[in-house]
Specification:
11 helices; MutS, DNA mismatch repair protein, Chain A, domain 3
């Protein structure tokens, strides 16, 4: 009964239930994978143990890392939703908040020195994507992208013009009609 109890078909009472103090859904999935498929090569086991030892020794960094990970949403699922076009405004805000934690996490991991933490140090900060999300998205957009109101005013001039036209349609049409009359010379 490593990850699911035989009798209740639940996580409760299993080794996974006992050990799971992960802060993100990604961490929970990874822990379950590690329990389901344990390492068998000595060097990989020793490398993982070195990482665990580092986190035990550097308890302040460990607790700070846990605080930062608490701010990270399920990036794997968010990216999946984006790639399949099923993303909503809340997902994009969660992605923005998650990406903003990468530099903090990297800075903490720079203090540790193991093979396992080296792969995390190679994380790209995704500054361009973060800047795009910060500059374009309202902090509290509506849930559905179909409702509109997702982007900040001034992010895209053409979008701003369309929004203005939808809000003040009659005025916009009258102005357009006047401009076109002047441009073409047609009176009616």
């Amino acid at each position: 009964e490593l990850t699911e109890s035989i009798r209740l078909k639940s996580k409760k009472g299993t080794l996974l239930w006992l050990m799971d103090e992960t802060k993100t859904p990604m961490g929970a999935r990874r822990l379950k994978q590690w329990i389901d498929r344990p390492l068998i090569h000595k060097n990989q086991i020793e490398s993982r143990l070195d990482t665990v030892e580092q986190f035990i020794d550097f308890f302040i960094e460990r607790d700070t890392l846990r605080e930062h990970l608490n701010q990270v949403y399920d990036i794997e699922r968010l990216v999946g939703r984006v790639s399949y076009g099923n993303v909503n405004a809340r997902d994009l805000i969660q992605l923005k908040h998650s990406i903003s934690e990468i530099p903090n996490i990297k800075q903490l991991l720079d203090r540790l020195d193991t093979e396992t933490t080296e792969q995390f140090k190679a994380l790209e900060p995704l500054d361009e994507l973060l800047a795009l999300l910060e500059n374009s998205l309202k902090e509290e957009p509506p849930i559905s992208v179909k409702e509109g109101g997702l982007f900040k005013k001034g992010f895209n001039q053409e979008l701003d013009e369309y929004l203005e036209a939808s809000k003040n349609g009659k005025t916009w049409l009258a102005e357009l009609q006047t401009k076109e009359r002047q441009r073409t010379g047609i009176k009616s």
